[in-house]
Every structure is written in structure tokens, then in C-alpha cells.
Amino acid sequence: MSADTGACVGADAVGTYDRSVERTFEFDVTFTRLAGGDLTFDTYAIVDRGIVAAERDTFTTPEPATLVLMGVSLLGIGAARRRRTS
């Protein structure tokens, strides 16, 4: 990928970039993954040697019911241990 005033090679953007001029870049991005699943990434402007694209892993958040079940289980285990030692 290149522009009138600089070039981007790998993760380094080299050249003189001025924020007062609007530029348009076109580029192809290929991500290779070892595991299946959805791929989400953010794109950023090329400013001050910034990143062109970065992968963001998506994580599932435990549901409140799952956390309640785990908490009740831990309380039950604690109560059972307390009865045994009494």
C-alpha cells in the first residue's frame, strides 16, 4: 500500500502525513486463524505510524444465572464441609 507522501510496509507507516488533507487508501487484508469462530477487527487511520488493522478476540460473557448457580454450588460445598467438621 502506498500514498503520495509515504508507504506502509508491515506495521510501519513511513512518510510525512498531514491531518489537514483527506486521503483514501485501498488495501487487502488477510487473516489466518488456527481455530474456528468469528473474526472481528478494527481499522485505524494511518497517523503517526499507527496500526492499519488489529484483530480483536471476542469473548463470551457468563450469564447472571450461570454465576448464581456457581455461587450456590460453592455455598453448598462450604456448608457440607462445615457439617462434616462439626
From TrEMBL:
Q: Where is the Ice-binding protein C-terminal domain?
A: 60-83
The lineage's top-level taxon is Bacteria
- Which one Pfam family would you cite for this protein? PEP-CTERM
What protein name does the entry list? Ice-binding protein C-terminal domain-containing protein
User: What is the species of this protein?
Assistant: Accumulibacter regalis
